[in-house]
Amino acid sequence: MNSGPDAGSESPSTAEAAPLNVLITGASSGIGEAVADRFRASGARVFLTGRRSEAPATLRDGERYLPGDLGDEGFVERLVAEATAALGPLDTVVACHGLQADGAITEMDLARASQVLDANVLSVFAVVKHAVPAMRETGGQIVLVSSRLGIVGIPDQVMYTAAKGGLIMLGKGAAIELAPQNIRVNVAAPGLTETPVIEAGFQRKPDPEAYRAQRAATIPMRRLARPEEVAEAIFFLGSPASSYITGAVLPIDGGYTAA
Ligand SMILES: NC(=O)c1ccc[n+]([C@@H]2O[C@H](COP(=O)([O-])OP(=O)(O)OC[C@H]3O[C@@H](n4cnc5c(N)ncnc54)[C@H](OP(=O)(O)O)[C@@H]3O)[C@@H](O)[C@H]2O)c1
Description:
alpha/beta; Rossmann fold; 7-stranded parallel β-sheet; 7 helices; 7 strands; 38% helix; 13% strand; binds NADP nicotinamide-adenine-dinucleotide phosphate
């Protein structure tokens, strides 16, 4: 029997058996909507937010969707207050909102660059800042949704890559700072995923199908991710199944960043 220093007797969080209370941002669309579906399927109680006023069609009876701009700290405070009033202390927070932005360096004005940083980093910081005091005293888990482009650079998306790279470091620093509170923080780094914003980008190209095939050809697995595949990995990081993982960056990218 292993009785050495690695033979721990601690068991994962007792929250494992109870339904998780989960706050999900960016839940009005794409990956965030799939993340809500995945937590819901596990029996979790979800509280959702997005920017558009209409709630996602997938919202179930009894669930709450609170729309607002996470760039406004007052809204973030209200969101966390309403989520805890509805659910009680939070077990899991998934920060899935973000802004994808193209533009060559010399053509992106500073106002747009600042907006990209705000949407992908500062607003996530605000969510973490206000959610931490609202989490269960025994701890919990936070998942930040970065991108493969937080790990590797590409042309014409420099501010997006800078922001998503910064988000990875936000996650690592927060993981260390919050570990004594038993709050785990991990970062999901999806690759190109079939969501409405990506599909809309394809549709703006002269030959959308040729462009899709061209993008898929740059991925070792030769296809885009489905939102459910990304959501499954986020669910793992956001549940007690990953109880000894913190400060990690998990690529969900068909091998893109392995190259
Ligand atoms: N799809 C991909 O290929 C891909 C790849 C790597 C990483 N990601 C990341 O994964 C996340 C989700 O991407 P997605 O493709 O599902 O994008 P999406 O369909 O455009 O969804 C983005 C979500 O973020 C919300 N949002 C954006 N800015 C906000 C703000 N200031 N305040 C509050 N909510 C805000 C949007 O709300 P409204 O729509 O209601 O305005 C929406 O719910 C993003 O962080 C993205 O950067 C996506």
